[in-house]
Amino acid sequence: MQTSQKTTERTQSQSWLESNTAKRTKCLVYTRVMGYHRPVESFNIGKKGEHKQREHFKEGKGSCC
């Protein structure tokens, strides 16, 4: 996919989100911190920055054993 096409898709999705703001519901994101789960919105500014920098992964098929 070309960069200009990605930019166009991103702009379209942003405009769709902005036009449908009233229909959206708030979603709480939880993360595991020191053995228990906490909502990310309750983090301080520094911890929120760390959370944004984390790399997320998806476990693929056949990754076991």
Topology as H/E string?
HEEH
Largest sheet geometry: 2 strands, antiparallel
**Broad shape:** extended
The helicity comes to 40-55%
Distance between the termini: 34 Å
- Rg calculated over all Cα atoms: 17 Å
Treating each run of at least 4 consecutive H or I residues as one helix, how many helices?
Answer: 2
Structural class: alpha+beta
- Please state roughly what percent of the residues sit in beta strands, choosing from under 5%, 5-15%, 15-25%, 25-35%, 35-45% or over 45%: 5-15%
Instruction: Please mark out the parts with pLDDT under 50 across 5 or more consecutive residues, or reply none.
Output: none
Q: For the residues shown, what is the average pLDDT?
A: 80
| Sheet with the most strands: spatial strand order | 1-2
Total strand segments: 2
